[in-house]
Amino acid sequence: MDLPAPNTININTNTDFNINNINRSNTPCHSTENGSFQTQLTRDLGPQFRILQLKVEDISRDKSEYLAKFPRENNISVLLLQETHTTDADQLRQRGSISGYSIAAATYNRSYGTSTYIRNDIIDWEHVSTYERNNVTAAHIKISELSIINVYKPTNESWLNSDLTPITHPGVIAGDFNSHHQFWGYDNNDPNGVTLNEWTERENIALIFNAKDKGTFRSWEMATRLQFGPMLHNKRS
């Protein structure tokens, strides 16, 4: 089965919050000397809290089986999926159950939809809120002190001020933003990219993205950044 290459963010275990406070059923956790945010696909930087973001393009049982294998082999703590194309919780459970992970939050739409999964050994988490406006969605969970927000904006929607609210420190926002800006490797800016970039500057949020990286989204034999969401985290003030 071929899926778009996932995007992962590694949070070293002493980065801006004490990950040792996260309650797990069996998994030990160790701190590192230098905490940093990095984005890459396969390189192992040591004991870390790892988040995977993927535009899944219609979740299915076959894709869920693959997603049960890849995160387990790569020690993924949280999965953030976009475009699940599920209309309700029952449909998501039938098509999108991933072994070893629990569904922490979800939004439903036949053409869009998101789902957030947490590894079963992580028990210190809560679903904070889910925001929805004209298919623009943001599902917010919190693990110990870390806020994680799964974002999706359709191409034909524009950002409003109500969509782009402050996040608490420490926090990570990931998803499919459907916004273009030259800072992110595009040839030009679009209004959504300008709005999103202004928000990141206003809220002191750093973009986890390397414009020199090869495009990771593949659909209809194309590789592109057009559907590939950057990751954002709020910087220490």
From TrEMBL:
Keyword Transcription appears in the UniProt entry: no
Domain Endonuclease/exonuclease/phosphatase as annotated: residue spans: 63-203
Keywords annotated in UniProt: Endonuclease, Exonuclease, Hydrolase, Nuclease
Cited InterPro entries: Endo/exonu/phosph_ase_sf, Endo/exonuclease/phosphatase, RdDP_mobile_element
Gene3D superfamilies linked to this entry: Endonuclease/exonuclease/phosphatase
Molecular function GO terms recorded: endonuclease activity; exonuclease activity
Pfam families: Exo_endo_phos
Record protein name field: Endonuclease/exonuclease/phosphatase
